[in-house]
């Protein structure tokens, strides 16, 4: 695996390999192994053009646990704020000997451009590009689902996942639909019509406007953050109206099967798409998703950089 740019790039065997590798790495961490040596001498650059807490820290922790050297590059306070192009930034990173670049960018397609333009020779990992994709988030979600619903093994065949909320602006939703279908799960998207993207009928999933009617039979409900910072128009009347129709509260959660779990990619708008008591309930695996993200990103970096093998 040279790059990870899209969940669509992962075939069934690729996805299972990443999940199985993450499981082994998570087991090593649970056994108290502080650092593993496979990426000693390698350099991983976190190139973030958008603000991030969970994803950036998760990638940094993943690289360091594999003994890689890590450079954190933020667009703010760098030459990017002076107008430097992505190409020139990439050439600078290449000159510094970057073996892998983890990029988050506000423009959809930026990771593909970085990987395919010949500016750098190392691997590229898409850590979120615009409203396009976020493949490692989908992988950690699949890892979490597999742990709870499949005892940590195999695929997700027959699992019913309901994804609720701001699908229009969600790179998480797109990547999850792609990857969960690859792993055999059935996906239903629930959102107001104004928060569904053009062409949604071509996605391999069911679509509903009614959350209450969609809860029955769900093995997992994944709530999406309402991304108000990307909204330049009124997509729903007000926050109260949105929460009453598309928010997950205790009453709705209690209609789920006892084994069903509640997920959220974070950060959360507590009281809007999810109530505080649901977010903090025993059904919630939101904090676990964050922990699983480190193991999954360790697996991705390990597989892209070939472990201890030379470039």
Task: List the defining traits of the structure above.
Rossmann fold; five-stranded parallel β-sheet; four-stranded parallel β-sheet
Description:
With 311 residues, the chain is an alpha/beta fold. The protein is built from eleven helices and nine strands. The chain has a five-stranded parallel beta sheet with strand order 7-6-5-8-9, with helices on one face.
Helix and strand layout, with pairings?
Layout: H1 12-30, E1 43-48, H2 54-65, E2 69-74, H3 86-95, E3 100-105, H4 110-116, E4 123-129, H5 135-149, E5 160-164, H6 171-182, E6 186-190, E7 206-208, H7 211-214, E8 220-223, H8 239-246, H9 250-253, E9 261-263, H10 276-279, H11 286-305
Parallel strand pairs: 1-2, 1-3, 3-4, 5-6, 5-8, 6-7, 8-9
What's the story with the biggest beta sheet? 5 strands, parallel
By CATH, the superfamily of the largest domain comes out as Aspartate/ornithine carbamoyltransferase
Count of spatially separate domains: 2
Helicity level: 25-40%
Query: What is the level-2 CATH architecture name of the largest domain?
Result: 3-Layer(aba) Sandwich
CATH class of the largest domain: Alpha Beta
Radius of gyration: 19 Å
Q: Which structural class best describes the helix and strand composition?
A: alpha/beta
How much of the polypeptide forms β-strand, as a percent range?
Answer: 5-15%
Indicate the low-confidence ranges by residue numbers.
none
Number of strands: 9
Strand order of the largest sheet: 7-6-5-8-9
Distance between the termini: 13 Å
Q: List the helices and strands in order.
A: HEHEHEHEHEHEEHEHHEHH
Give the rounded overall mean pLDDT: 92
CATH topology of the largest domain: Rossmann fold
Given the structure, what is the number of helices?
Answer: 11
